[in-house]
Amino acid sequence: MTRIFDDDLATGLGTQAIHAGQRPEPLAGAIMTPVYLTSTYVQDGLGRNKGYEYARSRNPTREALERNVATLEGGRHGFAFASGTACVDSIMKLFQSGDHVICGQNVYGGTFRLFDRLLQNYGLRFTYVDTRDPQRIADACTSRTVAVLVETPTNPLMWITDLSAAADITHRAGALLLVDNTFATPIFQRPFDYGADIVFHSTTKYLNGHSDMIGGMAVLRDDALAERLGFIQNAAGAVPGPFDCWLALRGTKTLHLRMPRHDENGRRIAAWLAARLGAERIVYPGLPSHPQHELACRQMRGFGGMISVDLGTRERAAHVLERTRIFSLAESLGGVESLISHPASMTHASVPADRRAQLGITDGLIRLSCGVEDGDDLVADLDRAFDER
Ligand SMILES: *Cc1c(COP(=O)(O)O)cnc(C)c1O
To answer: pTM of the entire structure?
Structure first.
């Protein structure tokens, strides 16, 4: 008899991270899910197959990842996509021309670009609101509102949205709450517990955690909605390859070990920066000076490794960005290695300058993604880089 991991066997996130969604491979019993590098499957006879016909529709490596992340989020159905952006695009295909979507004002730059430069051309309507104040979501609702999309904490300003307040307002309007959980991961925040309808990720970031693939993932609880998104996954076809799924699955096995270390380094560096530069320049939800620190404590079990620092001017930012040796100057985040970046000219270059200014993504803002290296070394690296000389 093939042993299949039963989610009821363990409620611990660590055990689930390692086992959920996986089963020994049937031919030899390999404990690791193989990379099923195949486009098609041999059928036993006309109309008789093993449930697999073509790899855009189903691939066993992809399914293992989908089940794994769905379990970690506390959902029932997972759908993997070729990127986080492809995931958002496919979710939006649930809606139709004329439908209205309310979107957090400070969402990932690529999500804004997708809505503003592409999907708007197909008749979807978007309103961007500061979801830190849930009342603004209520004020923006119309009879055509079908979804509210929030990211919490946001990138790079670390705005927090009260998920249960957002869910109440969204559901009262008869709409779906879509939550980008890329920054917090299910280790620190479980949006379904607060009423989210779809939780999604750029698996490129913390879930994979090793900066070696691009991917996205949507998790749902509702069976009927999941069936519709599954149809879109196959019909629009923005699926990831099996090797990328395998890499992400290898990543999620250590998510519960990596996240506490990102968090430990994040807290330590944020406190060090606050002591050195003044707390008002440091944006980190774990600092008591963060305007939404209390909400963050209520809604999250950890704060992670993302920190933004306002250095005042582009020159001062460049000085630091070019002097770190362990923190590498690069886009992206969530990997085991520490990165440093300049949102205004890198990740948020696709956001128009006036909009950036309005949001507070200034030329002096730098963003740190604290990895899982030794905290002493990371602090020493920043100490050298901040030195005026
Ligand atoms: C990176 C990112 C995305 C986009 O994901 P890709 O995999 O780069 O397409 C979406 N949301 C957040 C919060 C991200 O950090």
So the answer is: 0.96
